[in-house]
Specification:
2 helices; alpha+beta
């Protein structure tokens, strides 16, 4: 089959439009989430304000999180209050959308992010619990910044 660049572009546009509709319907079902959309398509809502250090590139972030699908299916979570994950901002395996969102945070902030698939796991999903071309909902607590 001869697949053209134009066909790929058109397919990507269609996928993006469908995801945007799904995300907007999800947000409509959660009116208390005062989502702000970034230029990349990330939706971000800070529901608890922290007072600690700001997250910046190359810092290490200790976080607590949960990741679910728009239908509510829980995919991953850190668990109890004592459990944290640590990663280097802008230099790790963590989703592009989380990397973008965390740089809007400071220690103690708690946020909800809706991350479209192109900023999450894209065409392949995570090959485990997140299907291909699937937006994810991330609830993230920035526990600590290590510089």
């Amino acid at each position: 089959m001869n697949w053209t660049k134009t066909q790929s572009t058109d397919l990507n546009k269609e996928i993006t439009i469908r995801e945007k509709i799904d995300i907007e319907l999800f947000i409509d079902r959660h009116p208390s989430w005062k989502m702000e959309e970034t230029g990349s398509g990330l939706f971000f809502y800070k529901y608890e304000e922290g007072t600690g250090l700001e997250a910046v590139s190359r810092s290490r972030a200790q976080v607590q999180f949960s990741i679910s699908l728009l239908d509510g299916t829980m995919c991953y979570e850190t668990g109890s209050d004592e459990v944290v994950e640590e990663f280097q901002i802008d230099h790790s395996h963590v989703e592009t959308g989380v990397q973008e969102g965390i740089k809007r945070m400071r220690e103690g902030d708690k946020v909800k992010m809706i991350i479209p698939s192109h900023l999450a796991h894209g065409l392949s999903g995570d090959l485990n619990k997140i299907p291909p071309l699937t937006p994810i909902v991330v609830d993230l607590n920035l526990y600590k910044i290590v510089r």
